[in-house]
Specification:
24% helix, 13 strands, alpha/beta
Length: 271
Amino acid sequence: MGKTEKVGVYVDAANISQHGGFGLRYEILRKFATRGGEYPARLNVYQIYDAERAKQDSAYREKATRFAEVLRDYEYKVIEKPLTRKKGESEGDVAINSAVDVDMAVDILQQADELDKIVLLTNKASFVRLVRTVQQKGGRVEIVGFDSIAQKLKKEADMYFSGYLIPGLLPIESPYEWGRVGSRVRGVCYDFSHNDGYGFMRYLTNFNEHLWITDSRFEGSPYKTVFAHISQFEENFDTSFLPSRELIFEFDLAESDKGLVAENIMLISAP
């Protein structure tokens, strides 16, 4: 029996929430991080905590407490980093500062030798050097993000994956389960013919160890392909940007006599 690999998950909660990841479901993130059967050795969530506000705002205090309690159910450790304020030059001008990046970097470097893979949720280019250091130690680094991801960070990671494309990671308004006919899913337009006015969308149906098999024609691929006509893209969308693996779309899955088709296609994220 082979050795079970160990994974560490590190989330900059405020950063992710402010850049498209609001409402992230941490139980789904855990499943995604351990999709190859890895053991979740470290699950760290770094949260900025405003102690001054908590004294005056009971709703804020209760929300922060509830957030930590829910994540504890999923075996995450919530690391609260006190928020600090520095007065600016003009009266009433306040700059907010926090050292979440430093705490995350130090923890990752200290724990990297005991981990086979690190899943990092942030969009900041400041983590590029950290990624390189972990890789030099022999570890694998995966980045999961939503909006405004630093291109340097994407390129440096062993794998970058948009959180928008992970089934269930974010709430989605749909009466059906992701992937069923009638459901609303998210994907990319990887192929498009401007002469013919149509192309193909690719979306993830589940997450397993075969995420690298992006061609849905191959056995074991967790992806599916769906036909997309130019008339189904939202009004005023410039299709000259297609095809693209950077643009993330949300669309309805419908069934025609020719198979699955994408309807009501809306752009939800762009570089």
